[in-house]
Amino acid sequence: MDTRCMVEGYMYAFHAMVKLTNQDGSLFECNVGAWSSSPFSCPDANLISKYGLTDWTGEWPIVGSMVESGNEWNVMEGIFTVSAFDAGAGTVAVEISGAPAGVNIQIDKVSISRIEETGSPTNSPVTSPPTSSPSAFPTISPFPLNVPPLHQSSADFTSGSVSFDGDAIIFSSTSGQEATILSKTAYTSNDPSAYVEIMVEYLGRDIFGTGYQAALALFFAGETETIGGVTGNDNTYETFENTVVATVKDKMYYSMDHVWFSMKNKAVDGSTVSTGGSGSYKMTTGGKFKLTRLNGYVMSYHYVNGEWVQIGTSQELPEDYKMVPLKVGMRIKREWKAEYYLKVYPIITFDAAQNQ
């Protein structure tokens, strides 16, 4: 890379398309967010800044991570700020590595673009994200047939970090407390579609400091799941993703008009699969996204310019979870932040409820 492009204090957006294959040429699907020691870890992009030619010193922060893995070519992206060390380095390069042994990495459409600060963020999309591929599934109406309450009388929740304002739910902490809410009731429809959905609209979201902000995850869980089984800190978030039936999470950087989404679910073969997407807007007041089960598949959407846009692709569930009632919930992934404040209005849509 031309080191003259690396200007101290400026933010840059990294983007690449990544294809992972096994030695026999078949596609390898990594587990987005897995630890590097996992046999299903995804590669990362590191910025390699070096001083000297022989006895060199250097830094190699992660500047890009995969946000999906269910396609042939998958998005890797991230945001980073150039440090004084990077700006003064003799050589600067990007290295993409970290896949398990025996997995080949192919890359395409690599770009690093400097981000110009645009002042106060807006809640409206700046640029509409690309339309997802056509789906064989029917469009889900944003207007619910049933709106059961999800508050202190019908849910279990973490005390001190979850509170209520009418039908709105507030997740907040100033001391790094975890926050989760889980319905006491398991939901499904009384027809073969087994339709159930949780949708949220943001009524407020505060920004704290710099970096990535605390994220909100929507999820489906089994009929016997407990609040303790789906609550934990960031270090155990992968365990949560492997425990629930399906989950979708937003991710937001403090100064960017951009949002990333990651959906994970139990797959037919018993593994956990992931898909994802993003949008060129800030997920704050007025933002909406949802998680849906329909006809044995799980899918997620975000609301852009007056219509629902699918996040990634629809994923088939194991037989054990295609028809059974599911509990619904939300939890915070703090991104190692001590402070967060998110106020949302949830809607659970279904055709019938089975009380537990």
Main sheet attributes: strand count, strand direction, barrel closure: 8 strands, antiparallel
CATH architecture of the largest domain: Sandwich
The first-level CATH class name of the largest domain: Mainly Beta
Q: Would you identify the regions where 5 or more consecutive residues have pLDDT less than 50?
A: 117-149, 352-356
- Percentage of residues in DSSP E strands: 35-45%
The number of distinct β-strands equals: 24
The Rg value, from CA coordinates, equals 21 Å
What shape does the CA trace take?
globular
Number of helices: 2
Structural class: mainly beta
Helix-strand layout with pairing:
Blueprint (H helix, E strand, L loop, with lengths): L10 E11 L22 E8 L5 E3 L2 E5 L7 E8 L2 H5 L2 E7 L6 E12 L39 E3 L4 E4 L2 E6 L6 E4 L2 E3 L7 E10 L9 E7 L15 H7 L2 E7 L6 E8 L5 E8 L8 E7 L2 E8 L2 E4 L4 E2 L10 E7 L6 E11 L1 E3 L2
Antiparallel strand pairs: 1-5, 1-7, 2-3, 2-4, 2-6, 4-5, 8-11, 9-10, 10-23, 11-22, 12-24, 13-18, 13-23, 14-15, 14-22, 15-16, 16-17, 18-19, 19-20, 19-21
Describe what you observe in this structure:
There is one protein chain. This protein has helices spanning 84-88, 237-243; strands spanning 11-21, 44-51, 57-59, 62-66, 74-81, 91-97, 104-115, 155-157, 162-165, 168-173, 180-183, 186-188, 196-205, 215-221, 246-252, 259-266, 272-279, 288-294, 297-304, 307-310, 315-316, 327-333, 340-350, 352-354. Mean pLDDT is 84; it is low at 117-149 and 352-356. The strands form 4 sheets. Strands 9, 10, 13, 18, 19, 20, 21 and 23 form an 8-stranded antiparallel sheet that branches. Helix content is 3%, strand content 44%. The longest helix is centred in the last third of the chain and has 7 residues, at 237-243. It has 356 residues and is mainly β. The protein has 2 domains: 3-115, Jelly Rolls; 155-354, Jelly Rolls (Sandwich). The chain contains 2 helices and 24 strands. Residues 117-137 are annotated as: Disordered.
